[in-house]
Write a structure and sequence with these properties.
Length: 259
């Protein structure tokens, strides 16, 4: 199981930004709304030599070995309990690992979204920076993985980043923990009008650079283009988002995730 990619599908992604932007132009098929965390977890849990009954019984213990999921279990015990119940059933019933991945993504997404509006601009900026850095690595040798991650269509062919670049995946996870553990309860109001304006500028510049049709297809039907093309546009989106500065990066991220 590629747990890095599972969690890279669980936070802020270019796709959710594209949804609002392109729906304003015309209806389209949308891709995954969130994207990014890394969760290294022991492969013991999914070893073929261990019975599913034993795997299910050890599931909660193994998940809690991960600092991020352990944090969620303490801050959001009811949601974590429900997640464990569903995941145990899936493991016991021999459901595909992709299904179990989906439960993990859903849990992280729900919890992180609850804390997003109280997160600092600095934390969100660092999170987007880490995602940009990961995509920059993938862009050179594994552009197809960027597309798979943005589509939430991960599989064992996606490169295991936690093994190759642990410093990046650990950084992402620590930022997530920081956001979830924050005692700040003051929500930052989202200026939708300003966020839309900033987002439109980003996409307008991407269209000038890559062509309107290519940008549209990247954020609606990315597999209709060569992986290298879609991956480059997605990477460029993240770079453009960071170029807006911390305050506007956080504003756009909060706006796109509020949908």
């Amino acid at each position: 199981m590629n747990w890095t990619s599972v969690l890279i599908c669980a936070t802020i992604g270019a796709a959710c930004s594209a949804v609002r932007y392109f729906i304003s132009k015309q209806k389209s098929t949308t891709i995954s709304v969130l994207a990014l965390i890394a969760l290294p977890v022991t492969l013991y849990l999914f070893s073929p030599y261990i019975s599913n009954t034993v795997k299910a019984s050890k599931l909660e213990e193994k998940y809690k070995e991960n600092p991020l999921l352990n944090t969620i279990s303490k801050k959001h015990p009811e949601e974590f309990k429900e997640f464990i119940t569903i995941s145990k059933k899936a493991v016991y019933n021999h459901e595909p690992t992709a299904t179990i991945d989906g439960y993990t993504i859903s849990l992280i997404r729900r919890v992180f979204s609850k804390h997003l509006n109280t997160a600092s601009d600095e934390a969100i900026f660092r999170l987007i920076t880490a995602q940009r850095d990961i995509y920059q690595i993938l862009l050179k040798e594994h552009p197809e993985d960027i597309v798979k991650i943005e589509l939430n269509q991960i599989d064992d062919s996606v490169v295991h980043l936690e093994e190759l670049y642990p410093h990046l995946t650990e950084k992402i996870q620590k930022i997530e923990e920081e956001v979830i553990l924050s005692e700040n309860t003051v929500k930052t109001p989202i200026d939708d009008t300003l966020a839309k304006k900033k987002l439109a500028i980003i996409y307008s510049n991407l269209e000038k650079q890559f062509g309107e049709q290519n940008v549209f297809m990247t954020f609606t039907l990315p597999k209709s283009l060569p992986a290298a093309t879609s991956a480059q546009i997605i990477f460029s989106y993240y770079q453009a988002l960071l170029d807006c500065g911390k305050e506007d990066t956080a504003l756009i991220a909060k706006y796109t995730m509020a949908a």
